[in-house]
Amino acid sequence: MSEYYNPKRGAAWNYGGDQWKLSRSKIDLFLECPRCFYIDNKLGVKRVPGFPFALNSAVDHLLKLEFDIHRANGEQHPLQKEYKVDARPVAHDELDEWRRNFGGVKYLHEETGILVTGAIDDLWINSKEEYIVVDYKATAKEEAVKELDKEWQDGYKRQMEVYQWLLRHNGLKVSDTGYFVYCTGRLDGKSFDKRIDFDVNLIAYEGNDDWVEGTLLKIKECLEGDVIPGTGKSCDYCAYWTARADYES
Prior knowledge:
The chain has 249 residues and is of the alpha/beta class. The chain has helices spanning 24-32, 34-41, 54-73, 78-82, 95-99, 154-168, 211-224, 236-248; strands at residues 22-23, 88-89, 105-109, 114-118, 122-125, 131-140, 177-185, 198-206.
């Protein structure tokens, strides 16, 4: 058994167990591949995880500290001023919990009995007293990321919409417009010199969470079934195991 990966979890953490809950990332897993989702959440055999991006986590942490300074002062962050955004970081009694990994915003969906969760990065408010969901992203590319125009970024958009849905079901008046604070590590430096410079862009996104309710019903149906669903069309994990099985046979 690898010291980094244990494929099986305790029954309490599988669907039907008292510790199981539906995270935002699990919703995305279902949309990517119902088969992997079922094997993970119903049978308790987890996918092999990717390696954590510690540098991204560091950027997230420092951004939170930076926005918290302006939150405490009740003022706009310079990035909000630069983009002329009608918003400022907002304080909320639940914000620390809503931002905490393995905590997050929670809502018990009555129709399915599923507890849905998701940890946000930040929360702003505008002059209309609408709360704004904010997500931090960090990467390194030759050109700064200024828009979400790639197919693989659709998951970021769904992530934003799940957060908006969760906050609305926690009684908040939430703006359809959310923002991504996108930090791109620059690759044009002449040397490392113990630092990485970032281009930081604010990307607005108009969310629509209408799909969430229907997806939760499909997830409930999937989990209640006794047959493992088919694979997703673009699931690399299933493609690997199919190719391996063909080779071994």
